[in-house]
């Protein structure tokens, strides 16, 4: 038995074929039963005489039948196979579905999120989500293709890592082999990608999972995916911005996205704050919003440091002097500000060689030219009030790499989930992630985080504190 894909039935009128798929809608007229059978390529109406009526919606079927042209009046323009139907000769139920806990029809947006995520595999059968996840795959492929063309190397970096200063709260993982110590899940591959520049790869990228234990919002998740990249021998923000812009344009166009401008406008941070009151803004007209246009823009000339926000635990930890970085501590200052930066002067006026990419009101990427010498990275940490010993404990490995010859470098990360949310016109990042966490941080389908047995804790050298 050879399988025919549903989209190919169009060319098989008069032939007997075998189809596999889900039974979508069922219309039972007693003697005749109609079902829309769905596989990854489309849907077709299948017709059973005195059969199929037992089939429950969303069950999985193997169907053998003859492809028949539909009479003119019964052509369905909604289906790609609307001019044909399958006259079922025999069928098997390969996977029977019970009563469905959630409806698979419709866009699902009005439904309770917890239930949708509990049955996410079912939810993902929904046309809107299937389309989003497929678009995501195509978009990532286009990004990869564009990066390979530019000689980038895809390299994976560790998930079990050391706690770092990147502006958010770390997720910690207890070590069994060294009780009482913890790995941290990476907030981004920032330091490893800089180390890869020290290794001489020159052009790195990764579709990287990053973990940030932050309060959740519609455009944030506990784990996110970045398209992370880094390049050696770049000295000015424009060099990275141009490379990234070309790659983003290619990938957006590959999935049919409409760009507002052929070249992304570049806006000063100060100007953005004065004009839009924020460093992320929406440049679309009302009509462009309706047409699903994407308005990308770069924001540059960010202040390097800011006063610590006392209500932010991570900032308080990082900014011992009362100053902390605005983006990450690994940036360089703009060339004009480098003398002051190295001297620790005029802190409020220092600008980082940082660039953010915004689109339709969201920050969808950011990066910088980096500090690539000991002196430079030290300067940043000194401004934040660290002693040499504290810097050594925190980023000593980077300093040593810099001491052993590291090329000047810079890079950027695109927030893939957020960018895809914008690309698909969704209101929540969860609509473009296969298995996102719920609003309260519970995992989809599985029941994490969950309590663990005392034996498991003991193995890790942990004890339970009465709550
Ligand atoms: N590591 C930065 C971030 O995750 C991106 C970068 O500067 O490359 O936001």
Blueprint (SSEs and pairs):
Layout: E1 16-28, E2 32-39, E3 42-49, E4 60-69, E5 84-95, H1 113-118, H2 120-123, H3 127-149, E6 153-154, E7 172-174, E8 182-184, H4 190-198, E9 203-211, E10 223-232, H5 237-254, E11 258-259, E12 266-268, H6 269-276, H7 286-290, E13 293-294, E14 296-300, E15 305-307, H8 313-318, E16 323-325, H9 338-343, E17 354-359, E18 362-369, H10 374-383, H11 388-403, E19 409-415, H12 416-424, H13 454-459
Parallel strand pairs: 3-5, 6-9, 11-13, 12-14
Antiparallel strand pairs: 1-2, 1-4, 2-3, 4-5, 7-8, 9-10, 10-19, 14-17, 15-16, 17-18, 18-19
The structure holds aspartic acid.
The site of aspartic acid has 9 residues, from strand 18 and strand 19.
What does this structure look like?
By secondary structure, the protein is α+β, with helices and mostly antiparallel strands. Helix content is 27%, strand content 25%. It has helices spanning 113-118, 120-123, 127-149, 190-198, 237-254, 269-276, 286-290, 313-318, 338-343, 374-383, 388-403, 416-424, 454-459; strands at 16-28, 32-39, 42-49, 60-69, 84-95, 153-154, 172-174, 182-184, 203-211, 223-232, 258-259, 266-268, 293-294, 296-300, 305-307, 323-325, 354-359, 362-369, 409-415. The strands form five sheets. It has an eight-stranded mixed β-sheet with strand order 6-9-10-19-18-17-14-12, sandwiched between helices. A five-stranded mixed beta barrel has the order 1-2-3-5-4. 36% of the residues are buried. Bound molecules: aspartic acid. Aspartic acid is lined by residues 188, 190, 328, 366-368, 411-413. Aspartic acid (ASP) binds next to strand 18 and strand 19.
